[in-house]
Structures are given as C-alpha cells and as structure tokens.
Amino acid sequence: DTANKVILCRAAIAWRANAPLSIELLEVDPPKACEVRIKILSSGICGTDLHILEGRNKVPLPAVLGHEGAGIIESVGEGVTSVKPGDKVLMLPLPECRECCFCLHPKGNVCVKEDVLSPTGLMLDGTSRFTCKAQKIHHLFGTSTFTEYTVVHEIAVVKIDDASPMNKVCIISCEVPTGFGAVFNTAKVTPGSTCVVFGLGGIGSAIVMACKASGACRIIGVDINEKKFPRARALGVTDFLNPRNLKKPVQQVVVEMTGFGADFAFEAIGLIDTMVAALESCRRSYGVCVIMGVAPNREQLSFDPQLINSGRTLKGGFLGEYKSRDCIPKLVTDYLQKKINIDPLITHTFHFERINNAFEKLGKGKIIRCVLLF
Ligand code: APR
Ligand code: ZN
What we know:
Elements: E1 7-13, E2 22-28, E3 35-44, H1 47-53, E4 68-76, E5 88-91, H2 101-104, E6 130-132, E7 135-137, E8 149-153, E9 157-159, H3 175-187, E10 194-198, H4 202-213, E11 218-222, H5 229-235, E12 239-241, H6 250-258, E13 264-267, H7 272-281, E14 288-291, H8 306-309, E15 313-316, H9 324-336, E16 348-351, H10 355-363, E17 370-373
Parallel strand pairs: 10-11, 10-13, 11-12, 13-14, 14-15, 16-17
Antiparallel strand pairs: 1-2, 2-6, 3-4, 3-8, 3-17, 4-5, 5-9, 6-7
Bound molecules: adenosine-5-diphosphoribose (APR) and zinc ion.
C-alpha cells in the first residue's frame, strides 16, 4: 500500500529548454487535502509541450511537462469526494472549480484556479509535490503527465467510463476538445460552409474532422509540410495550399478560390503571421476566424481594423470552450458509443522511456499525435 507515502518513480524531467528530457527517479509526495495522486497509463504529446521544450513558450523549469494524461487514482487526499482509488480518470489542463464566476457562467471555462495563463508551476498552496536530486521540480498547468505518478487537484481530474481504452483516451484531455470545440462551440460551423484550416498537425486534424462532421462542403488545408496532405485528405480536406509554393500570399489565394473568402478560418499553428493570414482569409460581413495556436511569448498581433469593421469576427478559447469536468467525460462516452472518432488522430505510440525520440519526430513534423504508454 503506497497511500500516505512518498512514491519513487520514473519521470521525464525538463531541466532546461533546448535540451533533451532526462529520465530520472522522481519523488512524488502524497496528495494533500483536495488533491489526488494518479498512476499514469498514457499521455499525449501536444504542440504546446514541444514549444515549451524549444523555449518558445516559457514555464517555470525544472518541470515535469505533459498535460494530456489518462490514469488510475492511486490515493486521494482529505475531503476528496468525486473520485476514489481505482477510478479511471483523465487529467484536465483547465480545472473546473464550479464555484468561481467563470465556472458559474453558462459559457465560461477558464476557471480562476487555472495555471495556464501565467504558469507558476505550483499547486494552489504555492508548493510542489515533486522532488528530484533534492531539488523542487515544477508541475505544468496543474497536470504533469510525463511521469509514472503525478499529483493534481481534485478539480483538475475527472472520472471516465470504466470501459475506456486507456491507451487512446488521453488525447481527450486536450487535443480532441480543443479541436472539436473550436468548430462546434467557438466557430459553430454550419452545413454547406467553406472552411480554411491553417496547420494540419494534431489540433488542425481534429478541426478538419469536426468541420467535416458539421457538414462543411469545402475544407481548404494550409501547411508547409506536404507530407501532412494525404492524411488530411482522408480526414476531409478538399483543397491544399502550401504557402511556400505560392506566388501570392496564401490569404489572397484563399480569397480568390472562394470568391470573398472562407466562412470559417482556423489557425492551429501558433504564429502571428498565420493568425493574420487566417483573419484575412475569411469573408467580410459574417466570416469567423478562430485562433487556437499559441503564439510565442510577448508577441503582438497587428492587423487592419477594417477587417473587423466590415463584419468579421475574431475568436479564440481554451480547450474548445468546453467546461472540463462537465464535458470531457461525455466526449469519452461519445467515443465509446462511436458518436465521435478519435482514432485517426493518433499516428504513433511510444513507450514512455522513448519520449525523446517522440519529441524529435514531432519536431521534424513526422507525427500527428503520439501517445506515450507507461
Ligand atoms: N505555415 C503553415 N503551416 C505551418 C507553418 C507555417 N508557417 N509552420 C508550421 N506549420 C504546420 C506544421 O507543419 C504542422 O503540421 O503547423 C502544424 C502544427 O502542428 P503540430 O506541431 O502538430 O502542433 P499542434 O499540437 O497541432 O498545435 C498547434 O495549437 O495548441 C496549440 O500550442 C499549440 O500553437 C500550437 C498549435
Ligand atoms: Zn472555477
């Protein structure tokens, strides 16, 4: 029985940016009040984890990265009621406290207890549950999944169906709601519409699937890596544009292809230039542009305000605007009932200890989404 004891386990530690992760023995403290300790079974690797490792987006280091995880509750702290040891759970990069103004608002999902906007890398009491080589190790977004065991707040974890295939459902922690919600909740794509998707990686692929499910009749995919095209075509992309092979700016080509621009544009890359290109690709009067990519720290967006004056809407949202604890278990059930499909989004699986190989391949654009198995 490990409850109330420190667990010594293997974890991938990011000591600093621009260096490989190092697999180390990590001491994981027992959960305090309103916290749970989880044995991780699988974790996705998201573009955001890569951007942190590349130093493009800053979080406190050293840290255990990873924020899409599936596992089993090992033990719970005092006062925890929503989960118990043995439950299958998903970890949530956005918590849902169900008490703050955002949680109580019918549309709000960026809970005041988040640690995503200006990450502290610490639990809500200002301390960490991780120690390695006598050093404090930070958490990431209140999750940290590149480890055999982690500690998260009860409000950042949710029980899922016992029948869930744990080697797959981890991506329903982030990639799936982010991509599907961008389409279903934020843009509200309508049947017969034309969509353009910038970036055909993990998030962009989920967006394409949801556009198709919403009845979009034309889906233009934009990516500089043409190896992404065959796969994206199978998911629903009808036309491809590689900006590097065009003589004109890609947004101009989209406008010419569609008359006045797309009804809906999505940015799933995380660059300022492609965000503006996405906005300029959608049509005046009622075009909607949704930005899902996360730009490098401190960069500013700048565009002609007439784009907005003339009726375009620019939107964004974390986790596809889903209320995490309320909605994510339902997405898992929808998957089990075959109402949604997530299988095409997972292109690779690696054993956890090969995490650096996975990051290397992701960095080279050879992976849509990889799942680490523990
Ligand atoms: N123009 C077009 N496509 C580009 C460009 C560019 N200038 N630069 C990169 N891409 C493509 C890559 O080739 C890749 O296919 O964008 C895609 C990005 O996909 P991933 O690396 O798989 O990243 P993903 O996990 O989908 O995340 C995308 O969303 O959640 C955020 O932080 C995340 O900002 C990131 C974005
Ligand atoms: Zn809240």
